[in-house]
Amino acid sequence: MHKDEGIDMQEKISQILLQEGKQHMMPIIAIHESTREYIYPVDRRRLRIRIRCSRENIRSCTIVYWNRFNDSVRKQSNLVCTGRDNDWIYFSGELSFEETARYIKYYFIISGNGKTWYLGRNGLSSVEPRYFFEYLYTNELDVLKVPEWARGSILYQIFPDRFFNKDKGNDPPGVVSWDSTPSRENFFGGDLKGIISRLDHISSLNVDVIYLTPIFKSPSNHKYDTEDYFSVDPSFGDMDDLRKLVRECHARNIRVILDGVFNHSGYFFPPFQDVIQNGEKSKYRDWFYIESFPVRTDPPNYECVGYYKWMPKLRFSNPDVRKYFIEVGTYWIKEADIDGWRLDVADEVDFTFWQEFRRAIKSVKKDALLIAETWKNGSDMLRGDQVDSVMNYLFRDAVVDYFATGAIHSLEFDNLIERMLHLYTADSLHVLYNLLGSHDTPRFLSLCNGNLNRMKLAIAFQMTFPGMPAIYYGDEAGMEGDNDPDCRRAFDWENINQDLLAFYRKMTALRKSDLPLRYGEYRGIHCDEGTYGFARSINGDNTYIILNNSAEEKALTIPCFESISEKSRFISLLDGKAYMPEEISDGETFLNSDIYDYCSKIKMILPAYHFEIIKKGG
Length: 618
Ligand SMILES: [Ca+2]
Description:
This protein is of the alpha/beta class. The protein contains 14 helices and 29 strands. It has four domains: 3-142, Immunoglobulins (Immunoglobulin-like), CATH 2.60.40.10; 148-263 and 314-508, Glycosidases (TIM Barrel, Alpha-Beta Barrel), CATH 3.20.20.80; 264-313, Oligo-1,6-glucosidase, Domain 2 (Oligo-1,6-glucosidase, domain 2), CATH 3.90.400; 520-616, Immunoglobulin-like (Sandwich).
């Protein structure tokens, strides 16, 4: 193409775009698609909607919507700003209908800095769009449902070989003494009876769900290499012990979920052994990904998890494999009354299997909880058709960097938290598995270099944050440990840090007693050098959490949503201390004062590594 022709063409395009109300370069970015990340039903008559826009300049967003068969009645609804990160500002809203939500056409009006833009199906324009988004129909099974009981609940993770050894009679051969250093191979003898005998301890932490790492028969101490999916490992106990554990937990209003390792089997799983023995003739040859026969292990000529020969990957395109693991999944609910599954390496498994698995599990126990392991954004498994929750390692990354190692400042922490919050729908958010650590990470206290003040601040954040906070066994006792296997030490019952344990009990009790802390929406309200604050809100009931993550005392002014005319004091939920709200001075601004309506402010002094939780007094 000639250079001159090129310029002519550009001008032509610009003119056409201008006629259609589209400047060639729109000064903003706005993203919405009529897909489940951005629009989904919470019941047949209600839709939740989200849109994100480039952070700068945008201040409001309105949705215009109507039924395709009733074009003349157009409605408008202002969306609410739910937060922003370094790049984006997010708006969301809920639309209610008098009939099943269907045939909804819509577009957005976005404004800021005295300008207005429109977002329709074909992008941004400066005039009303000609093509609209459309939401077609809400079928019953499209509705995103998470188990109600799980919202905001508290989890406790146990590595059974290391929790408590109640029954010496079932110890595996060569068991080491309880205070030994964990290696990849050694066994400590912990068992299900041990867990049953320590349920009072777990209960005292206000736990709602116990999650056990794998308990099925397997040659290793971690048991992620399953040999028999239908039996409890004899060193942990038997079916009766599991039934008893579940029964006793249920009596305490605690649910129990097991670890399902379905991505891969163990090397000694009989079908894999059959393939080793019978090669191509084995009826299980297509249960795995065998590259050639005969099967060899060094190096393996079959696919395995992390190239680790003891864990051959299962082939879920094979209907027999699907059938087998759906049977495993439902068997333990029927036989032992467990309440759900944590699914190992779930993000490496064929997602259509999880759809089938979910249907089968929920048909046996409607409110069973399914949690997928993932270390990344897990939203593509949370569209309502696969699992209910994912392990939230993104939460942990931010909390480790900010509270434990101090690698990031408050602004970056705010960015990570807001970004993470907006990866997920409002419903999924309240059942995310928010962890400080697990059997796969160093202990949190070790990452804090043993600094209990830092650890406590992180616990305070975790226990006041939306989602399901998870306690890794022994964290509450002040246990330390480097990456696995060191983070899997036997529970040091003789040396419990009573101060830390009492702190855990206090924070978990607080979460349970205050509605916003458990169920409320999250709004970031304060972010400064070494300090951070946010509100949890539900139906006008606000609880404020303010943290001083620095080694210096800080004098802070925190904005509040309550108006001062209410003449009410604010009370500390920690020690009952009273705070008097003050008027906001003319021109005084706070974090996000341009997107939230603050009505008063509170001054407080926080010593180094201290925090405060306040709300309007009754
Ligand atoms: Ca034992």
